[in-house]
Specification:
The chain is mainly α and about 150 residues long. The protein has one domain: Four Helix Bundle (Hemerythrin (Met), subunit A). Helix content is about 80%, strand content about 0%. Helix 2 crosses helix 4 and helix 3 packs antiparallel against helix 4. The longest helix has about 30 residues. The radius of gyration is 20 Å and the shape is elongated.
Length: about 150
């Protein structure tokens, strides 16, 4: 047998391999989103108390929120099991809340804020993060019951 007559085994197309690698478990994605929302809640509470929002921390928090939204989107796209319509509705609202937190952090990074505006922004972040945490805890409970 010559070297040129050897047949390599057929590999799966690249997009199938990437899709399998990129699939995220819904429960894991919800847990990641809950960690991001809780971190934002702590960040916003501290900022409201101190009256200052650290820019570097806001940048990393924005990335964490965006990654959580992407993980949730991938998990929902890869879901083959029918889930509770209520859980999916609440989850989509939580995704919007996390995306809002991302946008608020981006606003903080790209615009000069007065101390008064910083306080308003911190309160908006805190309220949005509280809503996201409550929703994600509810979704986590609903998914655990299924």
């Amino acid at each position: 047998m010559s070297l040129y007559s050897y047949r390599f085994p057929r590999l799966a197309p690249r997009h199938e391999v990437v899709e399998r690698y990129m699939q995220v478990d819904l429960e894991a994605a919800v847990a990641q989103a809950l960690r991001a929302a809780r971190a934002f809640l702590a960040f916003a509470r501290r900022a409201a108390e101190d009256g200052a929002l650290p820019l570097a921390l806001a940048a990393s928090m924005a990335d964490g929120a965006r990654q959580a939204v992407v993980a949730l989107q991938r998990a929902l796209a890869g879901e083959s099991v029918a889930r509770s319509p209520l859980a999916m509705s609440v989850l989509r609202h939580c995704m919007v809340d996390l995306d809002t937190l991302h946008e608020l952090s981006e606003l903080l990074q790209h615009h000069d804020m007065t101390p008064r505006n910083t306080l308003h922004l911190a309160n908006a972040m805190r309220d949005t993060a509280e809503k996201a945490v409550k929703g994600l805890l509810g979704v986590q409970g609903m998914l655990g019951e299924e």
